[in-house]
Amino acid sequence: MWLLGKPAITGQENIPRTGPVIVVANHTSLLDGFLLAGFWPRRITFLSAVYLFRLPVVGAFLRAMGAIPVQNEGSELAGMRAALRVLQKGGTLALFPEGHICQTDKLCPFQTGWVYLALKTGAPVVPVAIKGTESVLPLGAVFPRRGKIYMQIGAPWGLEKVWRPGQETMAALNMRLVSQMEQMLNEN
After folding, report:
1. Which of 62, 104, 130, 188 is deepest in the core (most CB within 10 A)?
2. In terms of DSSP bridges, do strands 44-49 and 92-95 run parallel, antiparallel, or are they unpaired?
3. Alpha carbon 116 to its chain's center
4. pLDDT tens digit string along 25-46?
């Protein structure tokens, strides 16, 4: 990662050092997961799209990280159960709620799986805004190029554990996160 230019990282004091954590980040490049894994002080388990496991370098990385394969569309029960187990054991779970690499200068719509996991477990949610990876490793590129990368780590959200999260609550929290992430992205 350092060969591509030193990333500017702010908010590292916001990373909980113990206990379960859900890391929620925007997704503009395949480089985003490598960035999180390389600079996060705790071991991360990613929720990752099934097709990524078939890519040579990315698939090997995901398997080495113990990533959980999930389908892009809808919810997959086995993936959600595996994610819940990671959190119940006090682990760090990272996901990109856009569900795919977003190729616009705006956030793509967020899926609500992160909210469900947070409400079911009571795990704090740490929003992470990543900027610049789309120009360092654009979609379709094989080799990265040097460029400036920014990663802003927001303050963790503490959410109350809920037995049966309602759609209305999940949608409201999802909108709140999107709003915060847009603000964080505009700050860099």
Report:
1. 130
2. parallel
3. 15
4. 999 888 898 899 989 999 999 9
The span from the CA of 155 to the CA of 21, in Å, is 12
**pLDDT digits 0-9 by tens, 111-155:** 888 999 999 999 999 999 999 888 887 777 778 888 899 999 999
Tell me the pTM: 0.90
d(CA 80, CA 149): 31
Q: What is the DSSP string of 34-71?
A: HHHHHH-SS-EEEEEEGGGGGSHHHHHHHHHHTPEEE-
Q: What is the CATH number of domain 2-187?
A: 3.40.1130.10
Write b or e for each residue in 72-111: b if 16 or more Cβ atoms lie within 10 A of its Cβ, otherwise e. eeeebeebbebbbebbeeebbbbbbbbbebbeeeebbebb
> Are the beta carbons of 127 and 139 closer than 8 angstroms?
no
Range list of H helices, the chain: 31-39, 56-65, 77-88, 113-121, 133-136, 167-187
On the CB side of 60, how many CA atoms lie within 13 Å of its CA?
Answer: 2
Residues 133, 136: Cα–Cα separation, whole Å: 5
